[in-house]
Amino acid sequence: MKKAISVCALCLIFSSFFVFNRNNFTDLVQEKLQNYSTNEWPEKVYVQTDKPYYSIEDNIWFSAYLVNGITHTKSSKSSVLYVELINDKDSILDKKKLFINDISAAGDFKIGKDWVAGKYMLRAYTNYMRNSDSIHFFQKEIPILALDKKEEPDSLEYKKASQDFTIPEKPDLNFYPEGGYLVENVMNKVAIKIKNDIYNKISLTGNIIDSDNNLVSKFSTLDFGLGLFFLKPLPNKTYYAIVDVNGSEYKYPLPKTLTQGYVLSVNNKGSYLIIDIKSTTPKGLAGTYLVAHQRGEMLFNKLEAENKNNYSLKLPTTELRDGVLHLTLFNPEGNPVCERLVFVDNPKNKATVEIKKDKEFLGTREKISLKLNTKDNAGNNLPSHLSMSVRDLNSFPYNNRSENIKTWLLLNSDLRGEVKDPGYFFTNDNSLKMQYLLDLVMMTNGWSRFTWQSLLYSEKRPYKYPVEKGITISGTTKFLRSPYTATSTETRLTFLGNPITQEPSKKSDSEGKFSFGPFVFYDSIQTIVEARLTNFKSTEDKDRNVLILMDQNTPSPKVSRKNVFKSNINSESQIANFLKMSKYISDINLEYDQQRQKLEEITIIARKKTEESERQKEMDSRARYGTPSNRLDVESDVTLSGQSVFNLLMRFPGINVFGNTISIRGGGEPKILLDDFEIDTEFLTTLYANEVSFINVYKGADAAMFSNAGSGVIAIYSKTGNGRFSRNVKRKAGIINFAAQGFYTAREFYSPDPINGFEAAINADVRTTLYWEPEIRITEQQQTKEISFFTCDMKSDYIIEVEGVSDSGIPLHQISTFSVQ
Q1: Where do the domains of the chain lie, and which CATH numbers do they carry?
Q2: pLDDT band at residue 593, thresholds of 50, 70 and 90?
Q3: What DSSP element (H or E) covers 542?
Q4: What is the pLDDT, as a whole number, of residue 599?
Q5: CA-based, 20 to 30 A from 343: which of 298, 381, 442, 689?
Q6: How far does Cα 100 stand from its chain's mean position?
């Protein structure tokens, strides 16, 4: 009797220990997911460009969106976004630093005339995103095509490769048992994926046989090389897939079968999920733990206490966000043994962008007016941030299977592996076939954001790359005399702007580190940092014996080509149409430039062609605002040495100089830049020709890319490059003077007005991007946004493409068309 009582007591102790451990584990999972969704959530970036590919000397216009990676609402973490343009040799050619005040920010890149054709890449990320894998950066392929097809590299010959396709000898066939494993004596659902691109459109049939050559199942693939079959493995059997291609038979072993294990199966009914859990282990499902989360936010969890072999659940989806839902079954030891992804497509989340046009058919140079608004599924106003591109359909045929903001935020950004033609799954045709294929996509791709092992058991470490809210100016203070060690000093920062502002002084720490900010300012601003060993009231020279070392910008991350948006260039005729139009535009612009040079009687001194070409390249590389209306190469003309800048400006046609007052004919005082830093006319009195390399003047349409420059722009470039305003120009004991680089200010897209604009009325107007609007705001107060612009001289069909995200986190994408006849 005593022995029996002891055994019962021991069982009770072990049972209590088991429950205690299970409760600890479930608490751990819930705690970690709660922390992830509340504090450690990721950020996502999406970038819309005005068109999918470009030509040499073209402009890339873009709008970048930064959101919370779980809710897709405004990110409360970063306010600083980096956007880079990278060539096919992984060199970063240009980089923009943007301030995200709300959800989006505008930007642009200028493609240089000396660039070579190739597959470039646009990359966008925040500093905080650098703490995780770079595959989560936004990366988009940007093909740049040469106008001379002879210069086109092999890498851009898209069509020839597709036309010469032949069926591969052996398909790359892969098998994905639902939940992860094949288990004996249980009916298993197995997805198939063929990775050869040719099988995206070619159906393949095959048989499943056992080790005794008995036929046990059949399969066939549909679009994207996806297929499915059912199999109930028997003990002591192995299984194979047999396919026949061009008379050749190929045999593939199926994954090994478990004698005991777990099976997780899901049937997606749209408004709800049927989840079936089975076990063939001796303990059944007792102690197993089922977790459902969406992008890291816990939705459902169930700890099974009973010793049963199966159960079913019905999980409603009518209150969930759209996107990937993740189901995981943990065994009693806390190991994930089954996982399944499911895509939630909730009708309540449907939203539309209404694009109302005043006309469907227009003539050339005719005004078109649009009214944009966003509506939710119930027809209510939906506050949103949008961007819009209007482009020529002949040059850029629309592909409804290509990537857009909806496919990126809801699908590709959360999956391990590329989803081909993702736009197909977001068309209005919500057919059974589409739902079937989307479920196979879920079965053949894994969750990419975290692994359970790292989430549950990795130690939390300080972020190497902190969240950035603005521009931080930091550095180190050291003794100016031996032993030159770091020391704590009083530091002070002053901005020499208009007005001059000074930050309160602060002590650098014991390692000499100091930091000011975050600040928000644009372009660049002249800055002074001072340090004193004691305080700024001291007048003793020895208190200034401090060396100030400013921190450099963090280098860009290493370039990786994983997870890149692919271009939708897929036909030789498509490339030919675009290049033909681009060549036509280039010829017209060249003809106009030549006529303008004749009218303004600019004398060009002949030189050796090679020297002149190199000099022009050098000046063009520094002039980030494109081809000017007029240019004076001061450095190459020795006769100009010693003259004042005012004398140099008098050489330009249309510029009037009276004393220290400057105006451009037909306007007021122009904007004046020195090495891209805005200055006033008073500062020009300190400049002479021997300090100047060249001067660009932008008038009329050429000045439209500048903000607040209706009277034109005079851009002066010094012989020392940007040194006077971008590098350290003065370093003395206890003081350093430099130009702090601010956020990039996007150029304005130039849209000619042939009615009110003189130059627009007389010049030819041909453009592949007819209009670009990077920031459109729909609010409760302004529910409709009215936009108008003029058509150009090209008679064609045009597509209006609007992308964006609502304040509530719903990604938006809409297209419309009109014709110019």
Answers
A1: 182-258 (2.60.40.10), 471-550 (no CATH), 585-721 (2.170.130.10)
A2: low
A3: none
A4: 46
A5: 381
A6: 13
